[in-house]
Design goal:
By secondary structure, this protein is mostly beta strands. Helix content is 8%, strand content 53%.
Length: 329
């Protein structure tokens, strides 16, 4: 049997702060430079082409005037290697009389690995590790201001070229989004999403100890200002991995991810974003300020964001960079 070297996978774990308690933890990498600049919060907003990831219930309220396509590229932990990167392609479209449909394709490059067979001290070759996932989503409004949604996804993980290094599974997400009637502080929305509910990943027929990164996300958003000149949006979010939940309730609640942030648009042309993200899932802590900006022109929107890395890596660069391009048509 070969000794499998999952250095890239461990690097991804280190970059998120999560422990290796779940397989395909890259499925919880947050897409979209816009939400990342706001502290990695979007479950109670979910109003663009990343909705199929954050909260499929948001598709119930997508604009009937246009469809959206979002592409994101981000180097992942360039402090460690230059072949770790994350790609996201998302889509959202209004469906007359039904609500909205959407989906996404994600690709995670975990880089080139050295192969060291049992009994060897030097590498005999290299192999490439990656993961890919496809998702289809639907959202509909079941009562005034109340949307529900569901996503179905297929996941493939290629850690090694032999069968015991190739894994696959399928999963579902369920979301709800409620736009609260205005009561003096602007539009308020509440969102919740259960993500990655499905059978364990099966590597070479073995699914034991390979759970998906099942997760619950709860969010709150408020838009206190919206006029022809300015639009201000603020949001907060709490999320918790539902994997290996064996500790006391107080300790489990303390191991979580939460964030808060805001977005300010000027003339629906320029956006500034800032937030705070705090992640204590696993052995490493990742916390710090996030920030970003966006520009919108003639159906195109370009966004950028900077998010913190785990404390152990901050000496070689404190931030990961994310870039998104959204096209409306």
């Amino acid at each position: 049997m070969h000794k499998l070297l999952f250095a890239a996978t461990l690097a991804v774990f280190a970059g998120t702060g999560w422990a290796a308690t779940a397989a395909v933890i890259w499925k919880d990498i947050t897409p979209g430079a816009r939400p990342n600049g706001m502290g990695e919060v979007f479950t109670a907003i979910s109003d663009d082409a990343t909705a199929s990831y954050w909260n499929p219930a948001g598709l119930a309220f997508v604009s009937p005037d246009r469809s959206e396509l979002t592409l994101q590229h981000s180097k992942w932990l360039p402090q460690l290697a230059d072949d770790l990167y994350f790609e996201f392609l998302g889509y959202a479209q209004h469906l007359e009389g039904w609500g909205g449909i959407g989906g996404n394709i994600t690709f995670m490059s975990m880089g080139e690995q050295q192969e060291i067979p049992e009994g060897y001290t030097e590498p005999v070759g290299t192999f490439y590790s990656y993961g890919i996932s496809g998702t289809g989503s639907f959202g509909t409004e079941v009562a005034e201001g109340l949307g529900v949604g569901m996503s179905l996804k297929f996941i493939y993980d290629h850690l090694y070229y032999e069968d015991n290094g190739k894994g696959s599974s399928f999963a579902a997400d369920f979301g709800v989004l409620y736009h609260v009637p205005e009561f003096g502080i602007g539009q308020v929305s509440l969102g919740a999403c259960l993500a990655n509910l499905g059978p364990n990943m099966s590597y070479g027929g073995n699914s034991e100890n390979n759970p998906l990164p099942r997760e619950i996300r709860l969010g709150l958003a408020v838009r206190p200002i919206e006029n022809d000149l300015f639009s201000l949006l603020a949001a907060g979010e709490y999320s918790k991995l539902l994997v290996d939940v064996t500790e006391e309730i107080g300790e489990e609640i303390g191991e979580n991810t939460f964030g808060m942030g805001a977005e300010l648009w000027y003339y629906d042309l320029l956006a500034l974003r800032a937030g705070y993200s705090h992640d204590t899932e696993g052995a490493s802590t990742r916390q710090g300020l996030t920030w970003g900006a966006g520009i919108k022109w003639e159906g195109f929107q370009f966004d950028m964001a900077f998010i913190p890395v785990v404390e152990e890596l901050q000496g070689s660069g404190k931030y990961n960079q994310k870039f998104s391009l959204t096209v409306g048509f």
